[in-house]
Write a structure and sequence with these properties.
five-stranded parallel sheet, 12 strands, globular, about 260 residues, 9 helices, alpha/beta, single chain, three-stranded parallel sheet
């Protein structure tokens, strides 16, 4: 299974073409297979970014573009050789009721119509808020509404392990819920540190951790990914204490030790 890196992890290290190339060189040396969305698209022409990726033997898992402009978005994705385009998360003003989730699912289905039958898919990436539960629906989570109410042929899901843990969810269980609709998973550990980020949740202080350095039980998560048909594992660490590349090395080394590579 290919392992990639989410560019957000390296956002402070890739401000120009030379830094992008340095990042690709280091990731390839660590045996990463690719990146999510391409790291250089914001600081150089896409064609130059693609050339650098090829130079270091790296691939791209998906792409981000304005999906409300299908022709432009598909052209952008094709430049990177991918068929998956990222979606925006549900707006805050739609989080407070089941009706908001149903309405957003309907919006996603409208966005998906021009992509139907093209081979392209639109990918929803979660945070914690989608897992809020609604008593009036016997505890159903907002994420379940998005899964059930969106077109399974076009809308797929990129679940994030850290944010599922932050929401109190069983990561493996939710990954299995979207079997066949989850080409990419964000691998991100969840650690507790009394000096770290204040979550406002009764004194529970959590932080983003390197894979294997937090509290997530990774073997069952990996097993669920295999069963669900995941095609890419994308390592992401939103904030780091160590050098970003050192963190990425710790993560991929751990994944190798548990037999992921």
């Amino acid at each position: 299974m290919p392992i990639g890196v989410q560019g957000y992890t390296l956002r402070y290290r890739i401000h120009n073409a030379a830094q992008v190339e340095d990042a690709y060189k280091k990731l390839a040396a660590m045996s990463y297979d690719g990146v999510e969305s391409g790291l250089g698209g914001r600081v150089m022409p896409v064609a130059d970014d693609v050339a650098l990726l090829k130079k270091y033997g790296l691939k791209v898992a998906d792409a981000y573009a304005d999906v409300s402009k299908p022709d432009e978005a598909m052209k952008h994705a094709e430049a990177y050789g991918v068929k998956i385009l990222g979606l925006h998360s549900i707006p805050d003003d739609m989080l407070n009721s089941p009706e908001g989730f149903y309405a957003y699912a309907a919006q996603l289905n409208e966005l998906a119509k021009p992509y139907k039958g093209t081979g392209f898919q639109l990918q929803y990436h979660n945070h914690a808020q989608e897992f809020r539960n609604f008593p009036e629906l016997n505890g159903k989570a907002g994420m379940a509404i998005l899964i059930e109410e969106t077109d399974p042929d076009v809308i797929v899901f990129e679940l994030d392990t850290h944010w599922m843990a932050a929401a109190g969810c069983d990561c493996a269980q939710w990954i299995r819920k979207v079997k066949g609709r989850i080409p990419i998973v964000h691998f991100k550990d969840y650690a507790i540190d009394y000096k770290a980020e204040d979550t406002g949740m009764g004194g529970v202080y959590k932080r983003y951790a390197e894979i294997g350095q937090g509290n997530l039980n990774w073997p069952p998560i990996v097993e669920a990914c295999v069963a669900a048909g995941v095609e890419w594992y994308i390592v992401e660490q939103d904030r780091t204490v160590l050098d970003e590349f050192e963190c990425l090395k710790i993560s991929i080394d751990y994944l190798g030790r548990i037999g992921v590579k």
